[in-house]
Amino acid sequence: MSLDLNIDPKALGKVAVLTGGESAEREVSLMSGAGVLQALRSQGVDAHAFDPAERGLHELKSEGFARVFIALHGRHGEDGTVQGALELLGIPYTGSGVMASSIAVDKITTKRLWIADGLPTPRYLKLRRDELSRERVRSVPDELGLPVFVKPPHEGSSIGISKAVGYSDMMDAVQLAAQYDDEILCEECIVGWELTCPVLGEGDTAVALPVIRIEAVAGNYDYQNKYFTDTTQYHIGTLPAEQEAAIRATVLAAYRSLGCRGWGRADLMLRKSDGQVFLLEMNTSPGMTSHSLVPMSAKAAGISYEQLCLWLLAQARLDGRVPDIHGSKT
């Protein structure tokens, strides 16, 4: 695809790249922010790093920032809280608005909406922190089968996730997830290939980028393999054209179902036995590190990292207001 890059960087004004933050994904966010900052500056944008863990967001207004590129991940960055603060400050920002951000960061609420819209997602159970008796935890595989994935539903980057292969693994897995969340998502294991597919745009004009099939060491695409090793293999353009098109269509439906805008990235599983695809989650502030998947997919579509960052910044807006990609304030 091609992006409308008829953008005047100077007209975008003084730009803050929100990076770091206080979530469990702070380290990844700092890497994303550094990459975005360098890319925007290379395109002539007056961009500055801004870490909400070190400075109050009200300083964005007092220091004259015209728009914000959100490179935060997880809580207080991807969950609608920062988006709400920026709405009150009247400073346009990249990515989804308050509602879509707060929904998508919650894997359980996301699954409920997708199920209501007839979209495929693995079967699941929700456990609360106050119902983690050994009997209840050990009963989960009776309902979902084994293995079971156990996740904190409000975290990303595979933080706090375990794969319980037997009944004896369940309690440790649940206790790990409970360190990060008051709720625990127990999810059916889909045996097959892990996929990811980014989306750019909004509504009917949104476009899905090429699908990436991920092949990690021993099938373990964890935090370490996502960001700090070079052993994970990424395959683009290897799926049959008809299957690729069907997956992209499913991802677009999932993106629109949540009301996302700007950009996002869906993570999926492709079941080996029958080729059925299952949606896992939607990321509304995806990683932009050297190992990240959105830039990788965009490159396959002929979009450079620098072009992607500039285009995303130009889409920055407030809820209910349409961006001017040529750079004037919304």
Walkthrough of the structure:
Among the domains are: 104-120 and 190-300, 2-Layer Sandwich (D-amino Acid Aminotransferase, Chain A, domain 1); 124-188, Dna Ligase, domain 1, CATH 3.30.1490. Strands 8, 9, 10, 11, 12 and 13 form a six-stranded antiparallel beta sheet that branches. Strands 4-7-5-6 form a four-stranded antiparallel beta sheet, with helices on one face. It is of the alpha+beta class and 330 residues long. The model has no long low-confidence stretch (mean pLDDT 92). The protein has helices at residues 26-42, 58-62, 81-89, 98-104, 107-116, 134-144, 170-178, 223-227, 241-257, 293-300, 305-314, and strands at residues 14-18, 46-50, 67-70, 124-128, 148-151, 162-164, 183-188, 192-200, 207-208, 212-215, 233-236, 263-271, 277-283. The protein is 33% helix and 20% strand. Helix 1 packs across helix 11. Strand 1, helix 1 (26-42) and strand 2 (46-50) form a beta-alpha-beta unit.
